Amino acid sequence: MAGNLEFIKSASGTSVSTLEVTDCFSDKYDVYAFAITKVDATSDGNIDLRFIDSGGSVISDAEYDYALLSLISYAGFGETKGTNGTKIENIMRVDTDTEKNGGSIHYIFNPYDSSSYTFYLGQSGGAVASSGLIGTKAIGVHKSAEQITGFQFLAGSYDTLTVNVYGVK
Amino acid sequence: MPIGQAKFGLLGGVADLGKLEKIETQTFSGVSTVDFTSIDESTYNVHFMTLNNIQHTGGLDTTAVQFYESGVLETASVYQYAYQTGTSGGLFQEGRSTGDDIIYWSYNNNGTTQDARDSENGYIYFYNLGDSSKYSFTTAQMCFTDFGLLRMDFVSGVLPQASTVDGIRLKMNIGQNTSGTASLYGIAES
Questions:
Q1: What secondary structure does DSSP assign to B105-136, as a single string?
Q2: Can you give the residue ranges of every domain in chain A?
Q3: Over the stretch A121-166, which tens digit does the pLDDT of each residue have?
Q4: N or C: lower Cβ tally within 10 Å for chain A?
Q5: Residue A28: left (phi > 0), alpha (psi -120 to 50), or beta?
Q6: B2 to chain A: which residues are within 8 Å by CB?
């Protein structure tokens, strides 16, 4: 059980389609948490995730596996999964109506360890679409043993997107 | 710093001991509701709660949540949720509602009248409670024993009303006498 969260940094973008959070992972922590605390989207959709390597480059190679369960209040649940993908898909649902967007908490394991894969798990309150709530529970992995220093959100169009990153002690 | 230590009241502005900041712990017994009415909703955008050793000593019951909006408890059938449950016996199923008067956290947990060792444990996140322009969301992961089987629930829920939520009620849906401990934290943003 983690003992505490220690704030590392906050990143925010306005009128963006991607948001990069750089230099947030280091040798100080093995486990990190990030919270998406504010989303105002200009189109309905999902936030996807990629990692950033020690050279500052966004990793878009086919090195990601992921599995996600969409918890839907008005219909049967949905599954999203993939192997050797170029990103971890659908970590949070977003909606164009500002008031309908929720929040989410995500964890990253061993990103800075160059001898380990980087693992991900997350949960989101998601958003209330036209028919009702869509939340998520998700896992993922970047299947390359390399040093990861940050991450990127993509696949959207946002008036505002804010994320806070914490080290888990 | 241990998770259970509080920032407020201890620091006096001298030092910042961490970003998971304890708001309140309540240990209770023989109750069917537990209210958190001072949640510092204007300070935190994300709240975190732990539930420990929740036991429905009166019999079968479920642990759920309702919200206070500007001091008024919302009891209408306006809440939405979706949950995935799984048991060590191999049963996995989903549940949902687009109009209930509660958000379930643990569904149909057995009471201690069947097995005195049954208890619920888990954690819950809350999002946007203090933002009057946003709906209020929650996600939860519960682990408990139910008729001798280990069971887990993943839950997403929402109060789909743009309002200021300034209180949280833990509600035992059937109203059985319940004991346990609940702790509420705020996640600081800077």
A1: EEEEEPPTTT-TT--EEEEEEEESTT-TTS-E
A2: 5-168
A3: 999 998 888 889 999 999 999 999 999 999 999 977 888 899 999 9
A4: N
A5: alpha
A6: 3-4
Q: Tokens for B3?
A: 């998770």
Q: What three-state secondary structure class fits B18?
A: coil
Is the domain spanning B23-187 CATH 2.60.120? The answer is yes
Q: Indicate the domain borders of chain B.
A: 23-187
Which residues sit opposite B142 in a β-bridge? B122, B153
Closest chain A C-alpha to B116 CA, distance in angstroms: 26
DSSP label at residue B190: -
ipTM for the predicted complex comes to 0.89
Question: Are the Cβ atoms of A103 and B127 closer than 8 angstroms?
Answer: yes
Q: Would you call B116 exposed, middle or buried from its count of C-beta atoms within 10 A (0-12, 13-18, 19+)? A: exposed
For B171, phi then psi, to 5°, come to: -125, 125
For residue A78, give both structure tokens: 């949905």
The per-residue pLDDT for A150 is: 98
The closest CB to that of A74, out of B45, B96, B133, belongs to B96
Rounded-to-integer distance, Cα A19 and Cα A34, Å = 13
Query: Contacts of residue A74 in chain B, CB cutoff 8 Å?
Result: 80, 96, 98
Query: How far is Cα B149 from Cα B110, in angstroms, rounded to an integer?
Result: 10
Does the reported pTM lie above 0.95? no
Task: Say whether A98 sits in a helix, a strand or coil.
Answer: helix
